[in-house]
Design a protein that fits this description.
The complex is a heterodimer. By secondary structure, chain A is an all-alpha fold. Chain A contains 7 helices and 2 strands. The termini of chain A are far apart. Chain B has one domain. Chain B is built from 5 helices and 6 strands. Chain B has a 6-stranded antiparallel sheet with strand order 1-2-6-5-4-3. Classes of the chains: A mainly alpha, B alpha+beta.
Chain lengths: 208, 192
C-alpha cells in the first residue's frame, strides 16, 4: 500500500488523486471574517454626514432673516404712512394697479399700501369713487361719472386683515366686477320691464 | 378600410352625443355656454366680459360690509349664487353679428327647465330683449337676459337662485347713477 494517501509520498494513486480533485473544491480556504453590509455602512466613516444638518441650519437662519427683513419693511412702510397721515398731504400712488385711492377732501387721501397691507382711515365718512366707474366707462357702459352723487363707502371697515395683499387685490377686483355685473343685469332687467310696460300701456290687449 | 370608416363614424357620433349631453347638462345647471360668441369681441368697439364663478363671488362677498345697507343687500342677493356671467359687445357698425350668434345662445335656452319670461321685439329700432328663467321646484334657479340691437349684443347669465325684485333694485345703487340705456334712436311706442 502506498503512503500517498497519508503524506503524498510514494507512488501516485490515481483513484485517490481523482477523489482529491473532486473534493478539493470543498476544502478549507482561510479568509477574513466578513461583516454584514448593514453593519459596515454604520461603521463606515461619514465625512459628509454633517453637511445636511448644516444646510438645514443655514436655510432656517436664512428664513429667519427674511422674515425679520419683511417685518421691518412693513414696519417702515406703516411708519411712513403714519407720518404722512399726520400731515395735510396727498399721497401719490406707488403702484397704480395695487393701490386703491379714496378721496376724503381736497388734500386728504386714504390709500392701501400693497406691500405692507397698511391702510389709512380718516374716519367713517369716506368718499370713494369705485374703480368700476372706470371699468364701466372703459367698456362702454354709459355711467356718467358724478363724484358728487357717489355715496360714501367705508372701505376700511370691510377690509379683511387676514387676507394677503394679492388676495385683497383680487377680492377688490372681484367685488368691482360683481357690482358692475349686477348693475348691468339689473339695468337690462329693468330696461326689459320698462319696454314691456310701455308696450302694454300702448296696446293694453297685448301680452309680451 | 370599411372597418376604419365605421369606427370613425361611431366615434364621431359618440363625440356629438357627448357634446350634446354636456350642453344639456350645462343648460340644466343654469350656466349657458357663451364661448360661441367670444369671436364678436374682435369686431366690437367696446366689450364687457365678466365671468364670476362661485369662488370669485365668495371672495368678493368677503369685502362687502354687513354694516353698509347697500353692500349688505348685495351680499344677500348673491348668497347661494353659483355664477354671474356678462358679455356685452357694442359695435360701430350694424350687422357685425349674425343670427347664428343669437341662435348659439337661444338654442341652449330651449333646454328643459328654461322658459321665456319676457320677449320684446321692436321693428322700429331692431332691438330684441328676451328674459328667460330656469325653474326648479317652483323657484328661480337661473336667469338669462338676451338683449340685441343692430349695434349691440348683450347677454347676462345668473346661475343660482336669484330674487328678481331685489336684482331690479340694484340699478342706481352703490353710488352709481342709473345706466343710460336709452339709445340714440329712441323708438316710438306706436311702432313696437
Amino acid at each position: 500500500m502506498s503512503d500517498y494517501l497519508w503524506d503524498k509520498s510514494g507512488e501516485v494513486d490515481s483513484e485517490i488523486e481523482q477523489l482529491e480533485e473532486l473534493l478539493g473544491t470543498l476544502s478549507h480556504r482561510p479568509r477574513a471574517a466578513a461583516l454584514p453590509d448593514s453593519l459596515l455602512s454604520q461603521l463606515r466613516p461619514r465625512a459628509f454626514a454633517h453637511w445636511s444638518e448644516l444646510a438645514a441650519a443655514a436655510v432656517l437662519i436664512l428664513m429667519g432673516f427674511t422674515g425679520l427683513w419683511i417685518s421691518l419693511q412693513r414696519l417702515d412702510a406703516r411708519a411712513e404712512i403714519s407720518a404722512l397721515a399726520s400731515q395735510d398731504v396727498s399721497i401719490a400712488p406707488v403702484e397704480p394697479g395695487n393701490i386703491s385711492r379714496t378721496t376724503l377732501g381736497a388734500a386728504h387721501e386714504v390709500k392701501h399700501h400693497s406691500r405692507s397691507n397698511a391702510e389709512l382711515s380718516y374716519g367713517r365718512n369716506i368718499r370713494r369713487r369705485p374703480p368700476f366707474y372706470e371699468a364701466a366707462n372703459r367698456n362702454g357702459i354709459h355711467t356718467p361719472v358724478q363724484t358728487s352723487n357717489t355715496r360714501p363707502v367705508n372701505e376700511a371697515a370691510s377690509v379683511q386683515p387676514q387676507m394677503s395683499a394679492e388676495e385683497l387685490a383680487e377680492a377688490r377686483r372681484a367685488r368691482d366686477e360683481l357690482i358692475l355685473a349686477l348693475q348691468v343685469a339689473s339695468a337690462k332687467l329693468n330696461h326689459a320691464q320698462r319696454r314691456a310696460q310701455s308696450l302694454n300701456s300702448t296696446n293694453p290687449g297685448l301680452n309680451p | 378600410m370599411k372597418f376604419l370608416e365605421d369606427s370613425t363614424m361611431k366615434l364621431f357620433g359618440l363625440a356629438l352625443l357627448l357634446a350634446l349631453a354636456c350642453a344639456t347638462a350645462s343648460a340644466q345647471s343654469g350656466r349657458i355656454e357663451t364661448s360661441g360668441i367670444d369671436h364678436l369681441a374682435s369686431r366690437a368697439s367696446e366689450t364687457v366680459d365678466i365671468n364670476m364663478d362661485e369662488r370669485l363671488l365668495q371672495m368678493s362677498a368677503r369685502l362687502l360690509s354687513n354694516q353698509d345697507q347697500d353692500e349688505a343687500r348685495i351680499r344677500e342677493l348673491i348668497s347661494g349664487l353659483k355664477g354671474i356671467y356678462v358679455k356685452s359687445f357694442t359695435f360701430d357698425n350694424e350687422n357685425e353679428y349674425a343670427e347664428a350668434d343669437v341662435e348659439a345662445i337661444r338654442s341652449q335656452l330651449r333646454a328643459p327647465g328654461w322658459s321665456r319670461f319676457l320677449g320684446i321685439h321692436s321693428r322700429h329700432d331692431g332691438e330684441n330683449v328676451e328674459v328667460y328663467v330656469l325653474m326648479e321646484n317652483n323657484q328661480i334657479a337661473g336667469l338669462a337676459i338676451l338683449d340685441f340691437a343692430p349695434k349691440e349684443f348683450t347677454f347676462v347669465n345668473i346661475v343660482g337662485p336669484i330674487d328678481l325684485e331685489r336684482l331690479s333694485r340694484i340699478e342706481g345703487q352703490f353710488g352709481v347713477p342709473d345706466f343710460d340705456l336709452v339709445r340714440e334712436s329712441t323708438p316710438t311706442r306706436r311702432n313696437e
